Amino acid sequence: MENTGISKELSSLSNVKTKRKKEQKSNVKYLENKPLAEWKVNAGRFFVFLIIILFWEAGARAQIIDPFFWSLPSEILATWMQIILDGTAWRDTFFTFQSTVYGFVIGTVAGAMLGLSFWWSRYYAKVAEPFIIMFESMPKLALAPIIVLIFGLGMSSKIAMAVAITIVITTLTTYNGLKRVDSDLIRMIYSLGATRLQVFTKVVVPWTMPSIISALRINIGLALTGAIVGEYIGSTHGIGRMIFYAGQTYEIDLIWAGIFNLSLLSMFLYAVVSQIEKFLLAGMLHQK
Amino acid sequence: MADFKLELKGVTKVFESGSNTKTTAISNINMKIPDHRFVSIIGPSGCGKSTLFNIISGLMETSMGEIKVDGNKVNGMAGTVGYMLQKDLLLPWRKILDNVILGMELKGVSKKEASDIAVPLLEKYGLGGFEHSYPSQLSGGMRQRAALLRTILYDRDIILLDEPFGALDAQTRSVMQEWLLDLWDDFQKTILFITHDIDEAIYLSDEVYIMSARPGGIKEHLCIDIPRPRKPTIVTSQKFIEYKELALSLLSEETKKASQIEKKVI
User: Fold this and answer.
1) Class for domain B6-81+156-265, per CATH?
2) Of A184, A186, A188, which to mutate for an interface test with B (greatest number of B Cβ within 10 Å)?
C-alpha cells in the first residue's frame, strides 16, 4: 500500500510546473572545449582595435572629444612617422631600451641571488625578512628624484631605478619558492651523502628556478616603468624625456606619438621575455 | 671484523614539543643484525618506526644510545647507509638515468663512468628504454624501481626501506616484492624493511621485529625459519600461517594499546 503511495507521488513529480520557458538546449559545445580558430580570434581583435581608432578619429573631427587633448590618430601617426624618419625616435628608443634591459638583468639576477642566499641561514633570513618587506611595500617610484640626484642625468640613474623596482620583488618571489622546497627531497639527498653545497646546487636551485622564471615577465614591465620615471625626473635622452618635454611645450601629437612608440617597445620586450621564459621552463619543468 | 653488520644499543628518542612537554618516541631499542639479512619491522602506526630509520640513517640525532655499523659508531652521520623513503622522491627535472646516478654523482664519479654502470642495471631491472624519460612519464611502480636502484647504486652495505611499496596496488606490489628479492640476492645487501603488511614482512624476511606502541620499543623478535627461495604460494603453508597468527596477535595487542593512548591524548 505504501508503495503505491510513493509511486503516486513520483508520478506527480512530472506534473510539477517549472519556471523555465524554453526547452533545454544541448550544452555539449561548452563542455567539449574545442580549440578556437586562430584567425577568428585575431580577426576579432583587429576589429575591436579598428573600431576604437575609428571612433577616436571621427569623435575628434566632430569635436565630440576635444582634439586639443586627444589629438587625432591620423595626426599622431604622421608625427610618429616624422620622428622615426628624422632619427630622434630611434635614438630615444634605444636609450630607453638599453636602460630597461640592463636594469632588468641586474635587478633579476641580484634579486634571485639575494633570495637564494636566504637558504643558507635561517637566522639571517629571519633577521632580513622585515627589511625586505618594508622595502617592498615602499613605493619605489618615490625614490626617483634622489636616485637621479645621486646617479646623474645619464643612463646609470635609469638603470638604478629599474633595479630598485625589480630587485625586491624578485627576492621575495625567490624566497617564497625557496620556502616551498620539498623537505623530503632535501632529506633524500642528504641521505645520499650530499654536502650542503650539493644540496643547494642539486635540489634548492633547480626547485626555485621556476619561481625565478615566473618573475621575468613581471620584471620587464617594471624595469621599463622604472626607466621611464627616471627619464621624467631628468634625463638627456629617452622616450620618457621625449614625452615629458612634449607635455611641457603642449605638443600633444608628440606626447601621443611617444606613448605609441613606448607601447611598441613594451610589447616587443614582453614578447621576447615570454619566449625566453617558455624556453627556460621547457628545460626546467617536467611535471605534467 | 665486527660480529654484526648493524647494531643498535639502547636507542632512545625524546622529542621536546613546547617548553615542558616531552614525548618519548622510541625507547631503549636494541637490535643486532648480521650481514646479508632481510629484516622487517612492523608495528602499530605512530610507534616510531620512521623515527628509528631517521636515526639509523643519520638524519636525526638520538637522545640516547648508539648506532654501530661494522662496529663503528655512526650516530648522526648521514650517508653511511642507503635510505629510501616512502615516496620515490625522484628529482622531476632530471631524466631517470640522471636520477639513478645521483648518489654516485655526489661522490664525484664522472657521469660517463656512472652511466656505464647504471645503464645495464636499468636494462636488467626493467627500466630499459626509459633512461631518458622524465619521472612524470613513468608509472608509480617504475618510479619506485628507479628510486630503489638509486639507493642500490649509492652502494652501501645496509639499505633502509620505509614502506617502499605502500602506495602501490596489490598486483604491482607482489611483482615488486619478487623484484626486490632478486635485487637483494644479486647485491648481497643487508636490508631493513618497514611495512604495515604482516604477509609482506613474513614472506620477505629472515627476521621480523615487532614494535610496541608508543613509546616504541622492541616487543618481539621472530626468526622466520622458512627456506629460500620461497614461492608466492608459501603464504598458504602451515608454517607461514603459524607465524602470521603469532604476529597478528602480538600486533593487535599493541594496536589496542596505541588506540587507548590516542584516546587519552584526546
Assistant:
1) alpha beta
2) A188
